[in-house]
Backbone:
């Protein structure tokens, strides 16, 4: 039986996929001290999206958030999941910026890093960034992205895992199942295959898209996986991860051990349920077991992008587009369905179906992808498709696909001398859209709700009452307000 | 690739698992003509427990409701279900009454039966199948899947062989009450049941308690099952079966065929969603995967019953102990399948053991009856020290000396007096004063208006509550004025 560690993704993947990064600093702070005492191995929070984030959060300073959170997280390391290189508006961020970012994150108190590339290609960069983090005393893990297709065999994953974890600075590997299609059956062969090549700590992060992730976790743990990722219930399930509540319950029944304060979890769930209610954000829901997940392998099942693009009148074509997506993904050598590839594949599939002529309008991301700008694809790109795209490429300015020589930090900083390092990084991660607003950054420290209905009433009375003295008596309390 | 057929459980086990059997005929009638044309192999509709609930709690005449529903589905084969040796009661019902049930249901138009008995009194199951055949009805004989050292693949194969030996049995039904048939166990269970089934088609019925039943179904189809039990989405999942919708999607992807009209399924789902929302019934949602389903194998609704029993004893915090005790009692009593009456019998003994603090210090009559063989032969032997304990119970002697009576139909008719057979059956399942109250509430209610939005429900409540002459209601998208 395993002694199991849990990485919390409530503030990371959970809110990313269910709330579209709308979880603000002020919504975390009231519960931060409790989260710190639950006993997680790490709390994942920092990522490119918490820095660039949802438009409405541009007025929040991610550095200030980090300062406030690390003040509360005294016992639990805060984890940053960093894509190497970060992709901003379809372009790779220069490595010099990545280095500065990682260094600064360490300085601000990040204690754990997951450094990853969904194409499993930028190993050198991952190793260099890992060295920086390790020098600063951080735990560093990397990740393989699980997808189900003919090229991603157990032995390919074992090779990738070996290549990615060769550095002694990297202590573990996350098997990241973005589409929730890692079946318990596959775990039985995949996990031993990886462990044979990589005698390091294995973690599983599985999005519970079709409801099987809890079974996948149990199967992994019985095969020497030591760490699993979960979210508190209101931010769990559906496109998010299994709930910590059901996970711990199952671990107990299966005879595994862990050191988690289950008594605190009720408060945590309560807090986020209230946030959801007040901010009108959705609660995670279980989905039915749907084999379509294996076809499109989209994180979170049916795509909102496609739903919007098709509009209410053409929803009937959704199935056709999903099937086309599966074909396009195959033709492009099975990239994992993460940004920007997921968007790229959805756009191509949509235009292939709607214009009836396949690959007639390749976009910049696709041109960059086939030219190897983002790294090598896992499988070969279909030759006929490549010809069609290259034809179109000839007509386009080749500038789009050229990998620019890596600029030094001094060169880059020269253009933004007036900015602090922190602002410089934030601006790089936000791209054009966010550059103007960093200066006014601030963090609202107060949560958008009070802890009880009575307090709500009092708040509104304080605002409205014009008289000098107000007495309130409810069931258990009496309050006098005097001005 | 296989042609897959469906048994619709929306109005039977779907609502039994999620709506506590409170679906009245009038709630279904607007949509049954659509169900009739959707292309199901069989539409499951009723059973004696539903009669009981309709009379006691809905005050609706179940025969009248049944006639309306069956008449509204002239193209469908409508199913009723029964335990082989009892209806409603946890005791044993005379054979003559069971036979009368089958004949009267047939007279009202039932043309399909599923028959179960987790102790497999095969002679009784075959006798009922034969009676069913008098009206040309189809019979599904159930094998209850449950996990125990006694319930081996060989055990299931032997039961399938015994059941299918009768020419009156048409299909074998794998019945997974607790949702504990894991996808990886399916291959061996289905293969062994098929080996005993004499070429008869296999049906599967699995409560989606773990969320894995759709996988169980797909595995079952892979190994030769061709008939699936599903429910319309609002009455599927959770304690109910997988939804028809998700199974069609998955079967399509695997290249299997079916003859359901998917356009009609949407209309049907919409109707029941509206009924559920209007009348405050729970709509089914998939559960998170929970290993306890395999530990206790307690049927969906029963955990709630156990909790209520504990609350009565002010021991609500002991639920986990009771669940564990249930597993122990089940083992001691020879692993009866956890279906009526044994789920209740085992659960009640477990509650008593915990509440009294002294195991088997109080033993209900049903446990004694079970131990002395009134229900049939246990699957595995009852543990000897437990048998000893039972044989020293104060009620033991009396129960042994009074085995269940087997009156003839003539004797029964004489006993019940000058009433119709339909009335006799009602009186056999519920106390007469409940029937009187049901009759007093007037004729069957046909009109169950559904509301198109929760706001309208709110308006309805206001209309009932308010005494003012005029009401103005402002909501985000609507303003309403009510005047009297």
Residues:
């Amino acid at each position: 039986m395993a002694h199991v560690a849990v990485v919390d993704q409530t503030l990371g993947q959970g809110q990313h996929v269910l709330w579209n990064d709308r979880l603000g600093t002020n919504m975390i702070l009231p519960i931060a001290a409790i989260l710190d005492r639950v006993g997680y191995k790490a709390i994942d929070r920092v990522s490119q999206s918490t820095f660039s984030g949802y438009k409405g959060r541009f007025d929040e300073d991610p550095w200030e958030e980090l300062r406030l959170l690390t003040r509360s997280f005294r016992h639990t390391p805060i984890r940053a999941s960093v894509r190497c290189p970060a992709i901003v508006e379809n372009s790779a961020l220069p490595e010099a910026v990545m280095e500065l970012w990682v260094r600064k994150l360490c300085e601000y108190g990040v204690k754990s890093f997951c450094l990853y590339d969904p194409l499993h290609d930028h190993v050198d960069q991952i190793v260099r960034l890992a060295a920086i983090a390790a020098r600063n005393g951080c735990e560093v893990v990397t990740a393989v992205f699980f997808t189900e297709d003919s090229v991603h065999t157990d032995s390919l994953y074992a090779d990738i895992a070996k290549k990615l974890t060769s550095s002694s600075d990297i202590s573990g590997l996350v098997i990241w199942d973005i589409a929730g299609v890692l079946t318990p059956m596959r775990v039985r062969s995949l996990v031993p295959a990886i462990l044979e090549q990589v005698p390091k700590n294995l973690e599983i992060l599985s999005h519970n898209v079709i409801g099987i992730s809890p079974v996948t976790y149990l199967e992994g743990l019985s095969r020497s996986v030591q760490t699993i990722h979960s979210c508190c219930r209101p931010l769990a399930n559906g496109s998010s991860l299994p709930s910590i509540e059901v996970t711990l319950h199952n671990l107990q029944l299966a005879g595994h051990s862990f050191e988690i304060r289950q008594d605190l979890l009720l408060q945590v769930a309560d807090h986020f349920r209230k946030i959801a209610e007040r901010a009108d954000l959705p609660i995670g829901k279980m989905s039915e077991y749907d084999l379509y997940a294996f076809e499109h392998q989209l994180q979170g099942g049916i795509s909102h992008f496609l739903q919007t693009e098709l509009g209410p009148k053409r929803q009937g074509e959704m199935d056709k587009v999903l099937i086309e997506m599966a074909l396009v993904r195959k033709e492009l050598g099975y990239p994992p369905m993460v940004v920007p590839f997921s968007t790229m594949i959805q756009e191509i599939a949509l235009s292939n179906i709607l214009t009836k002529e396949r690959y007639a309008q390749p976009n910049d991301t696709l041109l960059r992808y086939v030219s190897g700008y983002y790294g090598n694809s896992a499988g070969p790109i279909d030759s006929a498709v490549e010809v069609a795209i290259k034809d179109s490429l000839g007509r386009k300015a080749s500038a789009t696909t050229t990998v620019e020589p890596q600029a030094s930090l001094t060169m880059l900083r020269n253009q933004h001398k007036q900015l602090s390092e922190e602002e410089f990084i934030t601006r790089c991660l936000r791209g054009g859209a966010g550059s103007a607003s960093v200066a006014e950054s601030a963090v609202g420290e107060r949560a958008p709700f009070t802890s009880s209905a009575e307090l709500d009433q009092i708040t509104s009375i304080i605002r409205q009452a014009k008289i000098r003295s107000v007495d309130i008596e409810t069931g258990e309390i009496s309050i006098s307000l005097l001005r | 690739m296989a042609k897959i057929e469906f048994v619709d459980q929306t109005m039977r086990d779907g609502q039994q698992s999620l709506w506590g059997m409170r679906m009245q005929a009038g709630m279904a009638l607007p949509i049954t003509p659509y169900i009739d044309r959707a292309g199901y192999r069989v539409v499951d509709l009723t059973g004696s427990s539903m009669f009981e609930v309709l009379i006691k709690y809905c005050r609706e005449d179940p025969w009248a409701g049944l006639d309306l529903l069956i008449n509204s589905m002239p193209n469908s084969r409508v199913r009723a279900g029964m335990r082989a040796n009892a209806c409603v009661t946890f005791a044993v019902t005379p054979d003559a009454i069971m036979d009368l049930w089958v004949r009267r249901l047939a007279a009202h138009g039932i043309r399909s039966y599923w028959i179960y008995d987790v102790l497999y009194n095969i002679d009784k199951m075959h006798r009922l199948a034969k009676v069913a055949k008098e009206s040309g009805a189809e019979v599904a004989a159930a094998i209850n899947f449950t996990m125990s050292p006694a319930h081996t693949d060989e055990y299931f194969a032997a039961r399938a062989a015994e059941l299918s030996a009768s020419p009156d049995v048409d299909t074998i039904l794998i019945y997974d009450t607790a949702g504990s048939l894991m996808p990886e166990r399916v291959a061996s269970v289905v293969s062994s049941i098929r080996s005993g089934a004499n070429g008869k088609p296999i049906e599967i019925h699995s409560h989606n308690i773990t969320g894995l039943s759709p996988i169980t179904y797909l595995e079952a189809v892979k190994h030769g099952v061709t008939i699936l039990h599903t429910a319309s989405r609002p009455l599927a999942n959770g304690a109910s079966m997988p939804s028809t919708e998700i199974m069609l999607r998955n079967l399509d992807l695997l290249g299997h065929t079916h003859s359901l009209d998917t356009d009609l399924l949407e209309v049907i789902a919409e109707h029941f969603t509206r009924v559920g929302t209007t009348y405050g019934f729970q709509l089914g949602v998939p559960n998170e995967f929970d290993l306890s389903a395999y530990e206790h194998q307690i049927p969906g609704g029963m955990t709630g019953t156990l909790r209520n029993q504990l609350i009565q004893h002010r021991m609500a915090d002991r639920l986990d102990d009771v669940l564990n005790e249930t597993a122990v009692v089940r083992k001691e009593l020879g692993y009866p399948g956890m279906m009526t009456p044994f789920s209740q019998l085992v659960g009640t003994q477990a509650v008593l053991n915990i509440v009294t603090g002294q195991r088997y210090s109080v033993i209900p009559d049903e446990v004694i009856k079970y131990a002395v063989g009134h229900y049939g032969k246990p699957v595995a032997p009852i543990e000897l020290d437990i048998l000893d304990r039972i044989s020293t119970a104060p009620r033991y002697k009396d129960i042994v000396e009074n085995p269940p009576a087997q009156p003839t139909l003539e004797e029964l008719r004489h006993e019940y007096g000058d009433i119709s057979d339909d009335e006799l059956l009602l009186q056999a399942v519920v106390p007469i004063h409940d029937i009187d109250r049901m009759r007093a509430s007037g004729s069957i209610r046909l009109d169950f208006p559904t509301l198109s939005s929760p706001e309208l429900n709110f308006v309805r409540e206001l209309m009932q509550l308010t005494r003012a002459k005029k009401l103005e209601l402002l909501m985000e998208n609507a303003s309403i004025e009510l005047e009297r």
